[in-house]
Amino acid sequence: MIPVSLQTLAEVLSAELIGADCQIVEVTTDTRKVTAGCLFVALKGERFDAHDFAADAVAAGAGALLVSKRLLVDAPQLVVKDTRLALGQLGAWVRQQVPARVVALTGSSGKTSVKEMTAAILRECGEVLYTAGNFNNDIGVPLTLLRLEPQHDFAVIELGANHIGEIAYTTALTRPQTALVNNLAAAHLEGFGSLAGVAQAKGEIFTGLPADGVAIINADNNDWPHWQSMLGGKTVWRFSPQAAEGVDFFADDVRVNGAGTQFTLHSPFGTAQIALPLPGRHNVANALAATALA
């Protein structure tokens, strides 16, 4: 995270600052991950209220608290109406301060593999920040963005969702230059109602793109008319394991053996021989998606 004063964060959040100003170099929502001088964000959920553990965070070394009510704790505090939304604001603010190229991805499956592959490709070109574990929701995405630092050239941000509207929120924080929907599937329909609901939720990732942004779509899942309104006049690249009309990234001469998977990758930028240390034809599609995203 870029070092920032508590006073600056108060201005960013329109928060009330109680106590002395101090320098913040890390943010956490977990008392088990408190480090000396960090900002502890007290989140409140249906079954928990981290305000109850604020004193523990201070005892563990937290330098300041982000809270929704003033606490009787001996530590500087930023008081806001909603700490969950404030966390998102902080992530978005840090994103604006760091000029890294940001790419974002979502999908019904394969997100982790594509994320790892994309980060590996970009690592050949510079410093890369990418989503750790499954930090892909409205809490995890801001925490990932808060890890951005000036030396990062790229950021690979995974966006997940369990309801319509969640990705619209996190992509607005992330503001990617390139965005990918890896695939769509009828699994895990809770919160979406139907495959069309899944398509709507995943397609929200395109609403965060700038006018010159690039949208990447699985050519086997690109027949969702309402995506067109999200895409506007943006550049669209399509990928598929098989060559077909309108497909920009595809593979042929695919070989799967004990050493992994080998194939020839075709793209608008030329061809390349690819050797993945991973078995399975599904990883060909993941590699094509990662190449397009990178």
Notes on the protein architecture:
- Keywords: ATP-binding, Cell cycle, Cell division, Cell shape, Cell wall biogenesis/degradation, Cytoplasm, Ligase, Nucleotide-binding, Peptidoglycan synthesis.
- One of its GO terms (biological process) is peptidoglycan biosynthetic process.
- Pfam families: Mur_ligase, Mur_ligase_M.
- Residues 24-71 form the Mur ligase N-terminal catalytic domain.
- GO terms for molecular function: ATP binding; UDP-N-acetylmuramoyl-tripeptide-D-alanyl-D-alanine ligase activity.
- With 294 residues, this protein is an alpha/beta fold.
- It has 2 domains: 4-90, MurE/MurF, N-terminal domain (Udp-n-acetylmuramoylalanyl-d-glutamate--2,6- Diaminopimelate Ligase, Chain: A, domain 1), CATH 3.40.1390; 99-293, UDP-N-acetylmuramoyl-L-alanine:D-glutamate ligase, CATH 3.40.1190.
- Helix content is 29%, strand content 24%.
- The chain is built from 9 helices and 16 strands.
- It has helices spanning 6-13, 54-59, 83-97, 111-123, 140-145, 166-174, 195-203, 225-231, 282-293, and strands spanning 4-5, 16-18, 23-24, 27-28, 39-41, 64-67, 77-79, 101-106, 128-130, 154-158, 178-181, 214-218, 235-239, 250-257, 260-267, 270-276.
- The strands form 4 sheets. The protein has a 6-stranded parallel β-sheet. Strands 2-7-6-5-4 form a 5-stranded mixed β-sheet. It has a 3-stranded antiparallel β-sheet with strand order 14-15-16, with helices on one face.
- Helix 3 runs parallel beside helix 6 (166-174) and helix 4 packs across helix 9 (282-293).
- The longest helix has 15 residues, at 83-97.
- The two termini are 23 Å apart.
- The relative contact order is 0.11.
